[in-house]
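The methods section describes the discrete structure representation at length, but only in general terms. The central task, working out the structure tokens from the amino acid sequence alone, is never made concrete. Nothing conveys this as quickly as seeing an actual entry. For illustration, here is how one protein appears when written out as sequence plus structure tokens:
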Amino acid sequence: MPPLHAIAIFAAGIVAGTINTVVGSGTLFTFPVLLGFGYPPVTANVSNTVGLVPGSVTGAIGYRRELSGQRARVTQLAGASLMGGIIGAVLLLSLPASAFKEIVPAFIAIALILIVVQPRLSKLLARHRPHGRTRPGPLVMLGVFAGGIYGGYFGAAQGIMVLAILSLGLDDELQRLNAVKVVLTGLVNLVSGVVFIFAAHVAWGAAGLIAAGSLIGGVVGARYGRRLSPGVLRAVIVVVGITAIVRLLA
């Protein structure tokens, strides 16, 4: 691997780890970088998923204060995320690679739309948040399960989806729900990553560089990420996402 490619992948891992902790769309940075360096789409997705696991761990540790007192809630939701992640990973490996290449541009487009409308979505969710409902109901469990399937298959903007589901179904502070989101999306990456390690081709060089970068990014996101300019962050993500769509369609 050329040194410049290695540096770019490592840097993308840092950015992705930071954004996954704060928002939840870091895949829109690492995935296009791997595509740009010639990795096949499925290999890029598999390697990216494996590489982003460490960033979820450091991000969750950084949110340990917000996670305090939420063990029962996280435990209950974790089962739905794990099951969904396994199903999503199996779907990725079972469906033809051509199907993934055709489906992913649409997924990226959906992710970009979610990122653009995220500020309005957050305000809307805040107004409609249920009062007094602190335990996940069937609809929240089903939503988290569906989010896990999506995350196991691809994962871009999985965090935004899961946070929206949690905000609609649970009455709690947004930062506490975001901490739960970090754990749940991390579990999806972990379980789907394990499936990929045993059943798919992982580009270990790229995955290792993303892992090292995401470790740093998770710490940065938990400590400083809330200070990032949301508008600039969204603009950069949109540009990178559009680039990925063009690359896939080309």
